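Hey,
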Amino acid sequence: MDRIVRGFDVGTYTDAPLRADCLALLEAPPARIFEVISDHTKLFLWLPLVSDSTVSRRHALQRDGVSTVRWLHAGAFTLQEYIVASHPPHLLASSIEESEFFVDHLALQSLSPERHGGTWLRWRAWFRTTTLAPLSAPLAGLAMALLFRGALNNLIRDFGGRPGGHNEKGLES
């Protein structure tokens, strides 16, 4: 699997296996899509299960850019993510560094212009699980892919477009 994405080296942040890989074509330019996915205070509008988010930009040089910390609240759970790469409007990467679920986590959203004016949004996650390793890794990969698919469907609802691509999957290995 490609571990260099738009000049970003996944291996700098994790050596974990790829667990989820989803793709959608959205009917808006990359700058507009990036504006929405990088607005950390409004993730609840399109990211399933997230009911609220809290953001600290204290160490970020750019609003919502690298070193932004966001806490995603989903029911009784809260995940703390760090923005580790932000290259508007083409790439956004985040890492969950302390979690009861994930180890060596990296989520990467890459945006590519489509020749007729839309945007291909590809969302991938690399991680290891912390408990029940033989059983939980395949299930966590599937759950992450379902979460990504739900999020992409919400973005399709908002912008128009369609899901898909040959590489879409929840990876088990």
